[in-house]
Amino acid sequence: MKTPLSDTLKRLVGQGVDAIDTPALVVDLDAMRRNLSRMADFARKHDIRWRPHAKMHKSSALAKLQMQAGAVGVCVQKTAEAEAMVAGGVYNVYISNEVIAPHKLARVAALAHAVAAENGQLAIAVDSMEGVTLLAQAMNDHRAAKGGAAAVIDVFVEIDVGQGRCGVTPGRAAVALAHEIRKHAALRFAGLQAYHGRAQHLRGAQERREAIAMVVQDVLYTRKLVEAEGIPVELITGAGTGSLVLEAASGAFGELQAGSFMFMDADYARNERDPAQPQFEHALFVKTQVISSGVQHAVCDAGHKSHAIDSGLPRVHALEGEAELEYFNGGDEHGILKPVAGSTRLPPIGRTLWLIPGHCDPTVNLHDAMVGVAGGLKAGKVERIIRVDARGALT
Q1: Architecture of domain 7-11+280-387
Q2: Cys-Cys link to 242, which of 156, 161, 164, 200 (CB 3.0-4.6 A)?
Q3: Strand 335-339 to strand 255-256: parallel, antiparallel, or no bridges (unpaired)?
Q4: pLDDT-based confidence at residue 6 (cuts at 50, 70, 90)
């Protein structure tokens, strides 16, 4: 059940940025829309599908916006995230992760039938015989219990192309799983999942090129073996914001799963940009206020409860004419601000500051809603409140 948005948030619509209380998660809608347009143009130019990760924004409203721009659907990592998307009217969802627990698979089967009734499609990844068998059983059990038309769920075999997490070893193991999937009427072998998450954050462009070259080699080898068995591999899906230009140019991938491009966090900004990649902008910020000032530092009211720190501390976004500051760990509720080297300027008490989170996905998960601002962070107005539908959707 959705948590109602507070009246305080609703009343912000139409007001200037000064009315936004702190700390608050704010989306620069103009920058976000430019990012979305650039991604759509890139996909069209390269004649490739794109299915962004909704685990990044966790919002059915933003998922719909992406699909209106040309995305074929969205990815999620959790069954609960998929449920939140479907509840919000998003009917093309890929759970790009393994689900094994029978009670979760019962939920997956229910979702598959629900989206089929809306002429949509649900997909899921597998990397074990047990996963295939349990999924097929759940689909059959749901139909037997509920009746009605039989839904078919798309199933991708995940291969481990360097992430060192889920996925079978490229090659024969994927062939065996493809054969097993095709034994079950409720399952359809849809292709291969090949995502190298660690490659997204290799800082050098050449490093990323070398890593994805190995991914492509594994993908082509596996596809060749599967198709040699007479099983068509209709789609290879993967890629992220850090490497999407490489998968798009490979000729092997048919779908890009990049999601962070829409908000762009501080961690991705540390990457050396590939010249072929669209120029994505920062669009997600934590609005904060200076609440204390000392001789050598100031303190703001945005601590770790307002932003994730797994990919490093946030970066202070200096607007035109403002002093450059560095953010230091101040604990759960506070941030320590110090001038950058060569400066002594500190912001006064009451000054508004904007932080660029280190990692957008878990930062969004800390908030019930995002405040969408149009017209810029300095003099813009609140255009909309974006509900974080899948906040806490961990199961």
Answers
A1: Beta Barrel (2.40)
A2: 200
A3: unpaired
A4: confident
Region 164-191: mean pLDDT is 98
Residue 253 CA to residue 232 CA, distance in Å, equals 14
Cis check for the bond before 314: say yes or no (omega within 30 of 0).
Answer: no
- Average pLDDT for residues 166-193, to the nearest whole number? 98
Question: Would you say residue 4 has pLDDT above 60?
Answer: yes
* pLDDT (tens digit per residue) in 80-100: 999 999 999 999 999 999 999
What is the pLDDT at residue 3?
A: 64
CATH 2.40.37.20 domain extents, the chain: 7-11+280-387
Query: In CATH, what number does 29-267 get?
Result: 3.20.20.10
Instruction: Tell which residue, 154, 161, 179, has the closest CA to residue 93.
Output: 154
pLDDT digits 0-9 by tens, 288-301: 999 999 989 999 99
DSSP, collapsed to helix, strand or coil, labels residue 347 as coil
- Residue labelled with tokens 């430019």: 34
Three-state secondary structure along 195-236?
CCCHHHHCCCHHHHHHHHHHHHHHHHHHHHHHHHCCCCCCEE
Residue that the structure tokens 């120029």 belong to: 279
pLDDT at 2: 62
Q: What is the 3-state secondary structure (H, E, C) of 309-346?
A: CCCCCCEEECCCCCCCEEEEECCCCCEEEEECCCCCCC
CA gap 172, 179 in Å, rounded = 11
Mean pLDDT, all residues of the chain: 96
Beta bridge partners of 381: 16, 374
235 has which bridge partners?
191
pTM equals 0.96
Strands (E), the chain: 24-28, 49-50, 74-76, 92-95, 121-126, 153-158, 187-194, 235-238, 255-256, 284-293, 298-300, 315-317, 325-329, 335-339, 352-356, 369-374, 381-387
Start-end ranges of CATH 3.20.20.10 in the chain?
29-267
